[in-house]
């Protein structure tokens, strides 16, 4: 009985994240420790009150043993990097601290070899668990960039990644540990690399890397991370290189919106224009990166903190791209696409409108953490303020859904620290506070789909308002309805095998 109750509790805890309050997932490129001057960012610079999840990057994969290994034992171990990360929970006990393996530099081939062999997968998972438990962390983040692409051409990667993620879930979930992954985002790469429904079912969050769409490698100057696609690229292979097109691509392929984390870059990309008099987006460029910044030291790339310093030094003209809803700037022939408080606020509003579960940041060490443009952490603060503002106005249905599931979690499981983390960061909002004080009366049915009287609908074509709805025909099925171009569109989702959708609680439960 006790065990069964625990299972139910854990199942609800994990599934509640389908429809939970918006999390803020902060990646940290820990090598920022070695930067100098204003670029040096150490663990005490991590704003633990502005993130709900902190991810330490990057560990490596040892191809001979299939184990997770330190790539920089001086920083990770000798200087106490991972311990310092774990200790971030001292200032915010609700912060979830995860360790990431992989990243761009790790390539894809070694992951492919590991994932293709059941024994190697088990070894990998056991070593990940060992790191997590040794340091008292909350979970693990997989950054295999990318299955069946780059230096891995194994078309079985997609299926084998699904097995790896499922096996991770089976080990981590019963222990209350999180498993997340960073993924590539464009529809064509998703089709090659990911079984979306499986990832959506077993991962706690799918971190969408919604940036690096364009850069100095292109022959025209386009934006690093546009919210909307540009009409100039319609009909080309780049037509869906935008946050909007890619997020919809994931949802259309079966991702639960609440499992998706909308990635926001705290950096910009530079390219050298062919002519300093043609500066509009889409102008010809020389396929050369602009000069490296003083801290990130990478041609074609500038951290937001480096952008602030450059703008403060003068000589830049800034502009706003109305179509793509992002800023850009230029100085002579150097063209910069970047994100600022305005574009990030729009992306957060966008995430809220679709009921996405999280905002993800790559990466916090290039935030304006010193406040060189006025206030410290302006971008993270913008994210929190934008999330908070809708919660207090409680005008959007997706927020109601989130608040409701927080309530359900609180009544069901006293150990939902993930939920607690989400709630505490939004504590400024009175509405959130109110929802947590009324945990004894979960009233999801009244807020899920507030303009509808029924919480059950026939099928995905029967949506008449935004929110989550159960299926009147099949208790295992539910729908996420949203307004797209003036019409309600539904996405069909199913509970994990053996669970049914409870439309009062807004989560999947044991029947
Ligand atoms: C994983 O990929 C390999 C090919 O590399 C394939 O032989 C294998 O069947 C796949 N699935 C499993 C369960 O390992
Ligand atoms: C610096 O702050 C000003 C005033 O808030 C703002 O307009 C500008 O966009 C900021 N700079 C950057 C690089 O975001």
Automatic annotation (TrEMBL):
Domain GH18: 22-390
Catalytic reactions on record: Random endo-hydrolysis of N-acetyl-beta-D-glucosaminide (1->4)-beta-linkages in chitin and chitodextrins
An example Gene Ontology biological process: polysaccharide catabolic process
Keyword Disulfide bond: yes
Disordered, as annotated region: 390-409
SUPFAM superfamilies: (Trans)glycosidases, Chitinase insertion domain, Invertebrate chitin-binding proteins
GO cellular component: extracellular region
Alphabetical list of InterPro entries matching this protein: Chitin-bd_dom_sf, Chitinase_II/V-like_cat, Chitinase_insertion_sf, GH, Glyco_hydro18_cat, Glyco_hydro_18_chit_AS, Glycosyl_Hydrlase_18
Keywords recorded for this protein, A-Z: Carbohydrate metabolism, Chitin degradation, Chitin-binding, Disulfide bond, Glycosidase, Hydrolase, Polysaccharide degradation, Signal
Record-linked Pfam families: Glyco_hydro_18 (PF00704)
EC number: 3.2.1.14
GO molecular function ontology, one term from the record: chitin binding
Signal peptide boundaries: 1-21
Protein origin, superkingdom: Eukaryota
Top EC class, one word: hydrolase
Family: Belongs to the glycosyl hydrolase 18 family. Chitinase class II subfamily.
Protein name (Swiss-Prot/TrEMBL): chitinase
Source organism of this protein record: Dendroctonus ponderosae
């Amino acid at each position: 009985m006790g065990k069964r109750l625990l299972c139910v509790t854990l199942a609800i805890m994990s599934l509640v994240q389908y429809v939970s309050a918006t999390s803020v997932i902060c990646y940290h490129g820990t090598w920022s420790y070695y930067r100098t001057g204003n670029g040096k960012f150490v663990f005490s610079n991590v704003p633990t009150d502005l993130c709900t999840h902190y991810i330490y990057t990057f560990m490596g994969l040892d191809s001979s043993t299939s184990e997770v290994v330190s790539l920089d034992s001086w920083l990770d171990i000798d200087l106490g990097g991972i311990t310092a990360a774990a200790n971030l929970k001292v200032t915010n006990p609700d912060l979830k601290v995860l360790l990431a393996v992989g990243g761009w530099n790790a390539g894809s081939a070694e992951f492919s070899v590991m994932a293709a062999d059941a024994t190697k997968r088990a070894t990998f998972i056991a070593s990940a668990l060992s790191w997590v438990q040794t340091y008292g962390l909350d979970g693990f983040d997989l950054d295999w960039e990318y299955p069946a692409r780059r230096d891995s051409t194994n078309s079985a990667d997609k299926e084998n990644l699904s097995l790896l993620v499922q096996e991770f879930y089976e080990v981590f979930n019963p222990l209350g540990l999180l498993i997340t992954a960073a993924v590539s985002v464009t529809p064509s790469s998703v089709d090659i690399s990911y079984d979306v429904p499986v990832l959506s079912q077993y991962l706690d969050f799918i971190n969408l890397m919604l940036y690096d769409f364009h850069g100095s490698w292109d022959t025209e100057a386009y934006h690093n991370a546009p919210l909307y696609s540009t009409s100039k690229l319609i009909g080309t292979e780049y037509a869906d290189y935008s946050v909007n097109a890619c997020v919809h691509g994931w949802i259309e392929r079966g991702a639960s919106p609440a499992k998706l984390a909308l990635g926001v870059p705290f950096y910009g990309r530079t390219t050298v224009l062919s002519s300093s008099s043609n500066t509009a987006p889409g102008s010809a460029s020389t396929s050369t990166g602009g000069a490296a910044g003083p801290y990130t030291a990478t041609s074609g790339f500038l951290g937001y903190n480096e952008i602030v310093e450059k703008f403060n030094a003068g000589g830049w003209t800034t502009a706003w791209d109305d179509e793509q809803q992002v800023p850009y700037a230029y100085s002579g022939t150097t063209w910069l696409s970047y994100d600022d408080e305005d574009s990030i606020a729009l992306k957060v509003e966008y995430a809220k409108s679709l009921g996405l579960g999280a905002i993800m940041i790559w990466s916090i060490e290039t935030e304006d953490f010193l406040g060189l443009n006025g206030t410290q952490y302006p971008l993270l603060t913008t994210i929190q303020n934008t999330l908070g503002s809708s919660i207090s106005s409680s005008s959007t249905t997706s927020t109601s859904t989130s608040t409701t599931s927080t309530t359900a979690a609180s009544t069901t499981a006293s150990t939902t620290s993930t939920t607690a983390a989400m709630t505490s960061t939004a504590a400024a909002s009175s509405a959130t506070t109110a929802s947590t004080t009324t945990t004894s009366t979960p009233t999801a049915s009244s807020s899920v789909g507030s303009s509808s009287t029924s919480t059950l609908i026939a099928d995905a074509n029967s949506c008449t308002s935004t929110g989550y709805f159960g299926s009147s025909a099949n208790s295992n099925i539910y729908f996420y309805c949203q307004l797209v171009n003036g019409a309600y569109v539904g996405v069909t989702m199913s509970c994990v095998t053996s669970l049914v959708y409870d439309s009062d609680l807004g989560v999947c439960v044991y029947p």
